[in-house]
Amino acid sequence: MEPKYQRIVLKISGESLAGGAGFGIDHATIESIARQISDINALGVEVAIVVGGGNIWRGLKGAAGGMDRATADYMGMLATMINALALQDAIEQCGCACRVQSAIEMRQIAEPYIRLRAMRHLEKGRVVIFAAGTGNPYFSTDTTAALRAAEINADVILMAKKVDGIYDDDPKQNPEAHRFYKLTYLEVLNKELHVMDSTAASLCKDNNIPLIVFNITESGNMMRAVLGEDIGTFLGGDVND
Questions:
Q1: How far apart are CA 187 and CA 27, in angstroms?
Q2: Neighbours of 156 (CB within 10 A)
Q3: What pTM value is reported for the model?
């Protein structure tokens, strides 16, 4: 099997780690994700990961409840660190070397984020997990994925979700919702499709970073995306492509 992409950023939402529970970390789910990451790494693909924290805490929800937005966002960054450590452990249990780099200094449990060090880890075949977002409030982990992908010259962002692509409406609520197979970032912004926030979409657009949205709950989809199979929804290119 020959992978289409050599260096990827895998964006995993916190909700994806919760399995069917919707909250916390489901061990069977995180072990399944770790095995898929290990299999991709075994092909020689360099894997960087940005993980969310929504299964533990959402900054926007805290702010909506009256909490200071910056404080709520910092709490969300700490939630991503919990998920990153759990995912690191699961990946290493699969026999794959893994490092966590944090945008907020936590020397006892993670390396600080250093771009060249992260790239060196990837070149040596280690998986790198970027935790604590960008280290700044008001920025989502989607924006972190776009930023880190640009910084490390990733070939693609794989956005793992619980749906099999981008729809014009919530497919869980509307069975007639239409799935898009290919979109440009300009279309995402113009149609206000809530795949990611506008900052992340603009970053990807300006840096020509393709993105694939796929369903992580179906085992094997991650590998299929890396091999370049037609899966999920592809974002990138010009309107006329």
A1: 37
A2: 23
A3: 0.93
